[in-house]
Structures are given as C-alpha cells and as structure tokens.
Amino acid sequence: MSMTVRLNPYISFADTAREALEFYRDVFGGDLEISTFEGMPPEMGIDPSEATKVMHGMLTTPDGFTLMCADTPSSMARTVGDDVSVSLSGDDLDTLTGWWEKLSAGGTVTAPFMKAPWGDTFGMCTDRFGVHWMVNAAAS
C-alpha cells in the first residue's frame, strides 16, 4: 500500500470560504469538496448559527493544484493578512508526525497534534520563523 502526503496553501476566511472556493474552481477548474460545521460535537465550541459555514473545503484541479479553505468560526481569532497556512496532509502518520515534531520544535503549538473530532490526527503550529502550519493525518 502506498502512503501519500500533500503540501498546499490553506486560506482562512470570515464568511466567504464557499464563495471563494467556487470562484477558484471557476478560475482553475477541478473538483470541489466542502464540509460544513454542521454535526460537529459541542466541545468544538461552534455557535449553532455558524453550522453552514465551511469547516473544510478542498479544490483539486486538473493541473495538480490543491487549494484548501475554511471559514474561521467567530469563537476563533482571525487577522487579515495572517490567514494563510501551509497544510501538510495525507495518510502516512509516521512521516507526518515526524514533520510535526520538527516544525513545532522551537515554535508555538496552537492546537496539539492529536485525534480530532472528525477522526484524523490534527495539529496547528507556528514554526520558529513565524510560518503557520496545519498537519492532518487521515485515520486509517
């Protein structure tokens, strides 16, 4: 079985992630997958009025681009200009864990690398150079 990993930009929006993803699909073509906050467990602290916001959206283009976007819930801080992260994702938990440990060393962990409500292992950090990272290892 072949393990895969992907590196791509991840952009946070206030309330326009769906509109932006549809725009980028019109620009680049491709397949769009969107998940909302609907049905997320209460411990995620999502206001029920935000259930239709985009929790995770991914555009995969015919040219091999991957662009991920989400709406930032009102309970989380979002600073315009500081809202782009680099996403590392895939199904190779060992490789992604090793990268997480190296990226977060000397930086700031904003969400620990642990099992997330959607079943994957996920974490967010800012490395020692100020770059924001999101690491997601798909549950196998």
SSE arrangement:
Elements: E1 5-13, H1 17-28, E2 31-36, E3 54-60, E4 66-71, E5 84-90, H2 93-104, E6 108-115, E7 121-126, E8 132-137
Parallel strand pairs: 1-4, 5-8
Antiparallel strand pairs: 1-5, 2-3, 3-4, 6-7, 7-8
Features:
globular, 140 residues, 2 helices, alpha+beta
Please explain how this structure is put together.
With 140 residues, the protein is α+β, with helices and mostly antiparallel strands. The chain contains two helices and eight strands. It has helices spanning 17-28, 93-104; strands at residues 5-13, 31-36, 54-60, 66-71, 84-90, 108-115, 121-126, 132-137. The protein has an eight-stranded mixed β-sheet with strand order 2-3-4-1-5-8-7-6, with helices on one face. The longest helix has 12 residues, at 17-28. The radius of gyration is 15 Å and the shape is globular. The mean pLDDT is 91.
Q: How many helical stretches?
A: 2
Portion of residues within helices: 10-25%
Mean pLDDT: 91
**How many E strands?**
8
Percentage of residues in strands: 35-45%
Backbone structural class: alpha+beta
The main sheet comes to: 8 strands, mixed
Structure, briefly:
This protein has helices at 17-28, 93-104; strands at 5-13, 31-36, 54-60, 66-71, 84-90, 108-115, 121-126, 132-137. With 140 residues, the protein is of the alpha+beta class.
